[in-house]
Structure formats: structure tokens, C-alpha cells
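Please, structure for the following, as C-alpha cells.
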Amino acid sequence: MESHVLELELEESTIEEDDVLDYFMEAQRMEEEDEIPLAIECYKEIIHVFGDYKKKPAKYIHINGYFESPPPLLVLSCALNSLGGIYMDQEQYDLAMESFYEATLCWNENYMALLNMANIEREHRSIEKAIGHYKHIIKLSEKQNAGGSNDMQEQTHDAWEATWIIGPHQKCVQQAYYMSA
């Protein structure tokens, strides 16, 4: 198994905003190959590119068919969610919750991050808070589907939208309904 180690310097970013998708895909590959420390460094490098995203919140708002590939702010949200998933696997629940929360700061419709927060609450903290997160996912989904033209089920999507947004949203909403019943 050949390793594609990326040079990472967290002091000064070695990548630019346009490169975050490539770094994200590399981090995903590293996770699949159980190169977790390297995946963590890739995710942290993506986060570092955006530097002050917490101080100057910018939210990704999805417009169907507008982007040809996942835009950098969406990739940041997904990187934060993936990093949180690693922390969750390592039973570092406070770090995981922080990462998931930050993922929702960038994209408040990151259903996967919301679902992950709910699952940590359900398993390790407060069932009431967990149910609140599950219901929030359902509410976001209903709001998203309320406008007719915003109905994600009936619109044409680019392949990346189906993979990054539509599929995960559908799975998360199904699980949220199930868990909040």
C-alpha cells in the first residue's frame, strides 16, 4: 500500500482555498487506509486555510446547479465533520462535538454534523438534547422542502450534489425521524 504523504505546515498554509477539495479527498483516502494521523493533519490543514472562519462566519448556502464541484466552504464544513468523526471514534467526545458544531457554523444544513451531535448526546450525555437535534434536522428538511421549487427530490442535480448533499440529507432525515419517534 503506497502512501501519498502530503507536506503540511500548520504555521503557514501550504495550500490555497482552491485546493481544499483535493486535500479533502486525500484525507478521505487516508482514513480509508487507516492512516488516521495523516488524515487528521489534512483536515487541520483545510481548516487552517480558512483561518478566521469562526471570527467572520461565512455560511454556505446551497443553490442547486450553481457550482460545478463542491465549493471550498462546503468542503470546510465536511472536513470539520470528518475530523469530528475521527474524534468520536477515538472517544474524544468534547473535541468531536466542537468539530461538529463548527461544521454547522460554516453550513447550518450539514445534517451529518447535526446527526453526529445528536448521536453523541444520545449515547453519552442528554437524551433530551439528542431529540432536539433530531427534530432540528427534521425541521430543516421540512423547511427546505416547503417551497416547491426548493424541493431537492424533484430537481436536477449535478453528480457531486447527489453525493455530497442529497444522499446524506436523505439518510440523516430518515434516521432523525426514526430516532425522535
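Residues 159-180 form the longest helix (22 residues). The helical segments are 20-32, 36-49, 72-89, 93-106, 111-124, 127-145, 159-180.
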